Amino acid sequence: DVSGQVVLITGGGGGVGRQLALNFARLRARVVIWDINTDALQGTVEALEAEGYRCRAYLVDISERERVYEAAKKVKQEVGNVQVLINNAGIVACRTLWDLTDKAIESTGHIVTVGSVAGLLGTYGCTDYSATKFACVGFHEALFTELKTHGYDNIHMTLVCPYYINTGMFAGCKPRLLPMLEPKHVADSMVRSILKNEVNCTLPDHVRMFLPLKCLLPAKMCWELMYRVMKGPETMMGFRGRGKATAG
């Protein structure tokens, strides 16, 4: 039961973040959203108000550490302690590693961590994105282990790893295996996993069947399977994205 609890959602200005805000508001949680885009924040606030709910919105660029500290302090003072943190914000550049600046690489580092299938299986054109999502998976697994080892059983963690989501972030991409997921479906699935205290949530669930192949098959065979059979790299060839970073 999250009724009355403070739920902080980063990237809450659009897509899955907005759907999460709506879902938790309907569960009577006290919703707080962070985003880099003022118009997107206002859009989420208005969406909640249209259903009779309130939402506290903060303009925050989470790539700037000091801004994060300042916003966290304001939330604690103005709303209260956060009980559910959903690390949802993200961006995709679709550039190979050698096209990225050092700054771009460096700035891309109940607790809910939104990873990606790209954080379980390396993805063409997503060297920076996959790296940060693999980091999310490692962060989740390491912190989960530490919390359990030291007896913090009252702190729950959920790692969410979705397939491509139809939010505009992957505009132009043409997934070969499955259609893109819709934001509402992803948000609904995330809320169910959080309420059940599930440790891992992979969307769609059957994507997990590919993971053992990565460990059991020789690396070259995995590459041949990905490139020639699944045609994975072709998915990102038409990438347009949203251009300028907006709501995640």
TrEMBL record:
Give the protein family. Answer: Belongs to the short-chain dehydrogenases/reductases (SDR) family.
Q: Which GO terms describe its molecular function?
A: oxidoreductase activity, acting on the CH-OH group of donors, NAD or NADP as acceptor
Gene Ontology terms, cellular component aspect? Answer: lipid droplet
Query: One of this protein's Pfam families, by short name?
Result: adh_short
Per its UniProt record, what SUPFAM superfamilies does this chain match?
NAD(P)-binding Rossmann-fold domains
**InterPro entries listed in its UniProt record:** NAD(P)-bd_dom_sf, SDR_fam
Protein name per UniProt:
Hydroxysteroid 17-beta dehydrogenase 11
